Amino acid sequence: MKTKNKNSDKNKYRICSAAVFILCILLLIFLEANKYKYSYITGILVRSAIYALVAVSMNLVTGFTGLFSLGQAGFMAIGAYTVGILTIPVAQRPAVYYMNGISPVIEKMYMPFWAAIIAGGIFAAFCAALIGIPVLRLKSDYLAIATLGFSEIIRAFIASPQLNKITNGSYGLKNIPSFPNLYTIFGICAVCIALIVLLINSSYGRVFKAIREDETAAQAMGINLFKYKELSFVISSFFTGIGGGLLAMFMGSIDSKTFQIALTYDILLIVVLGGIGSVTGSILGAFLITSGREWLRFFDEPLTLAGINIPLFRAGFRMVIFSILLMAVVLFYRKGIMGTNEFSWEAVFNLFKKRNSAGAGSGRSDIQDNHSDDGVKRILNDREA
Amino acid sequence: MNFTTFLQQCLTGISLGGAYALIAIGYTLVYGILRLINFAHGDIFMMAGYFMIFAMAVMPWYIAVPIVLIATTVLGVLIEKTAYRPLRDAPRMSVMISAIGVSYLLQNLATYLFTALPKGYPSIPVLKKVIVFKNLSTSLVTLITPVLTIILVYLLIALVNKSKTGMAMRAVSRDYETARLMGIKIDRIVSFTFAMGSLLAGIGSILYFTDRMTLYPFSGSLPGLKCFVAAVIGGIGSIPGAVVGGFILGIGETALAAAGYSTFSDAFTFVLLIIMLLVKPTGIFGEKAVDKV
């Protein structure tokens, strides 16, 4: 009897998932059809999706393997520059590199965007593999500061005058073609996140979690610590690189200042808000933070209430509110939205049930108790039948 | 490059190193006691710069300087009380994330209050006095910085080694729990440590920005990171180590800039860090730590 009830619950959850999925697709079709009318919202959603991808891949390293890595911006820069260099139309290159000229090696090198994105990911993964060999021997905060350092080194290299003919130095890259349509970008992000989830649920994922829980114990169980740490770091960087490439395509023009430490912090805050060790949390966090930043924009505009100009409201106030909110999450709600749990419909329904019974006064909760009694009776009857 | 230019660059390097050393001590003190990279330290240093701009606008420098130092110290202690104390028993990663959050908040707050445009740093006439020695000319601040650094460090070391508070600090940094059992008031010691670190950051800020003239909300973040690196190179937890690390970074960076590789001067810091972590992770003066299971 109980299993039957569970099955019906499961079906209910499946229907909900399918409904949400279809809603998302419909929304996507709608946005694609009215791209120009809703370009603002579309932009926010695209950026959120890209950040979600990067946040999930950061979560793979930080939340699931327990390596506190802060190198995201650097790997994003590698991906973004690879995509930029490979996809700017050959005819427009002289205009982009008008200041320093272009190196003959890359002058005619052109790839379609999907190949360039994969190339960006692979290049980022390759750099991560090299960096990982020395850095992954370090632990916790040393690792954090070393990866942060590498991300700054990567940025300094990109901006250096010695690489002017390849990265265009401090002028940055322009005219990077955008996506053919919205389905591509959301599709790429969804596929990448799905791949990471598959990895986390595989036996490799379990090894990662074992390392996170206790390194010494994991080693005693015969796990090759370095191999798995390196694997997690490289895979995460691969997807971060892809995220960077997508960001380059979305923004159209990039320079080394785009990939400052602040970008890594943004991603970190998304991961923290969503819950360290929760994929769905990271995705939720990415959408909430990126769109939250836009919604809070009214704080930046001068506000006049009843003829009185409220002096607090001016440029920059939004970010102050935003950072105070984040501090509040860090201090009082340490686990983030999801903690280490994943999203499940069961939890959502339970939440609503609790809300209803707790929110209403005693009278109503009595009625509800009756209802649940009815439910129990019905179940009992069913069993007899 | 002739000899005069060389000397000039040396002076600049040593002066920069002195300012770095003062900030690095703040990192080393806090790390020694709480095992926390205080990411907000660089921003405390930046805020001290803004305090100075506003203080100097209304009063002469000899009143402004103490007020700025007090304000900076109060800011440091306040940050510790609100952002780090509630997380005393939390995992280290949460505290570090809180530190990053504070740094983010301070930067945004500064952007909001003072706008993102660079502001001119007021010059203290005494510090800016130009001294000419044969064909070598330099401002007084360049000469004062290293001397002041050495004096302050000497005082601090004496404080840590001789006074009762210093003894308590050492006890807390050696073993947190045992120190608490011995009746040491941990919270007070931690606050005191933050006060010391922020005070030195305030002094460092005055010396650093007097040489640089401009200040904007993000001008604390990179020097902050560099000074943390300086502390690691010297051996985190060790005060003389932080000073040596600061001077190494300051001189190395100036040398690179003088050789024409100024874009790499930031990267140089981190290359040095990574080399150091691989060769001798405990730093020059660091003690060996044993990981217990």
Radius of gyration of chain A: 24 Å
Annotation, overall tally of beta strands of chain A = 2
Protein chain pair with the most extensive contact, residues per chain? A-B, 42 and 45 residues
The helix fraction of chain A, in percent, is over 70%
Number of strands of chain B: 4
The strand line-up of the biggest sheet of chain B is 1-4
- Multimerization state: heterodimer
CATH architectural label of chain B: Orthogonal Bundle
**What's the end-to-end separation of chain A, in Å?**
10 Å
Strand content of chain A: under 5%
* Overall mean confidence score, pLDDT of chain B: 86
Question: Largest beta sheet of chain A, briefly?
Answer: 2 strands, antiparallel
Q: Would you summarize the structure shown here?
A:
The complex is a heterodimer of chains A (385) and B (293). Among the domains of chain A are: 34-261, no CATH class; 351-384.
Structure, explained:
Chain A: It is a multi-pass membrane protein. Chain A: Residues 366-385 have a biased composition (Basic and acidic residues). Chain A: Its main location: membrane. The complex is a heterodimer of chains A (385) and B (293). Chain A has helices at 2-33, 39-64, 72-87, 93-96, 104-107, 113-135, 140-159, 164-167, 182-201, 203-213, 215-220, 225-251, 261-274, 279-295, 317-332, 345-359, 362-384; strands at 303-305, 308-310. With 385 residues, chain A is mainly alpha-helical. Among the domains of chain A are: 34-261, no CATH class; 351-384. Chain A has a two-stranded antiparallel sheet. In chain A, helix 2 (39-64) packs antiparallel against helix 12 and helix 3 packs antiparallel against helix 6 (113-135). Chain A is globular. Helices cover 74% and strands 4% of the residues of chain B. Chain B has twelve helices and four strands. Chain B has helices at residues 3-34, 41-58, 61-84, 92-114, 125-128, 140-162, 164-174, 176-181, 186-212, 221-234, 239-258, 265-279, and strands at 119-120, 130-133, 136-139, 214-215. In chain B, the strands form two sheets. Chain B has a two-stranded antiparallel sheet. A two-stranded antiparallel sheet of chain B has the order 2-3. The longest helix of chain B has 32 residues, at 3-34. The termini of chain B are far apart. Classes of the chains: A mainly alpha (385), B mainly alpha (293).
